[in-house]
Amino acid sequence: MAEAAATRRSRITPEREAELYEAVLDLLREVGYDALTMDAVATRTRSSKATLYRQWGGKPQLVATAVRHSKPGRLGDIDTGSLRGDFHAIVAREDDCTMEQNSALMRGLFMAVHHDPELLRAFQELLIEPEMEEFRRVLRRAVDRGEVRSDNPALDYVVHMLIGAFATRALIEDQPPTQTFLTSYIDAVVLPALGLPPH
Questions:
Q1: Of 65, 92, 113, 114, which one's alpha carbon is 20 to 30 angstroms from that of 32?
Q2: What average pLDDT is seen over the chain?
């Protein structure tokens, strides 16, 4: 199955794939998930709808892959030598403007996920699980370095804490997430929960 997918993927160049993903994200920001159609993607990208279905299987898979592709590099490759440095480097990967755009985009997609089980499955398989595995690598290195105890119960909730801070700031404070807010949150909440001093 993976081999067949790789064979299909090879027909589209990485540059062309990146263009398609960018077009999908632009359309999502313009019309939202529910109104986005494969026809619209095909028109915007001058592709055939058949090619899109052959390559990605359907709208949920295409959207989840586009969101994953938009992430700036692999989390697991970040290794500054300290967990605090790693967390701050993760936050620094996106400037405030990009973070605000992505926050609005993700809010819309989270709402769509509640009504579309296929989109939820695609997100879990193509975005959430790969991202979680990358994040677990960052945390495992902190445990291996002796920074965090392996039995610390907060280890299982770090991602929840960070996503919660990112997603709820607009709801609670009517403000977008920013680098300053997230790094302060990491120092005040996440690191102490893991038994680390904030500085």
A1: 92
A2: 88
Question: Helix, strand, coil shares of the chain as percentages rounded to 5?
Answer: 75, 0, 25
Q: Residue 2's pLDDT is what?
A: 45
CB 108 within 8 A of CB 34: no
The reported pLDDT for the residue numbered 11 is: 65
Structure tokens at 76: 């697991």
Round to whole Å and give the CA distance between 42 and 51: 9
Q: How far is 102 from 97, CA to CA, in rounded Å?
A: 9
CA nearest 138: which of 126, 148, 152?
A: 148
**What number is the average pLDDT over the span 172-179?**
89
Contact present, 161 and 63 (Cβ < 8 Å): no
Closest CA to 81 of 138, 129, 128, 19: 138
CA distances from 48 to 21, 38, 41, 59 (A): 15, 9, 9, 14
Record the tokens describing residue 133, joined without a space: 């595995």
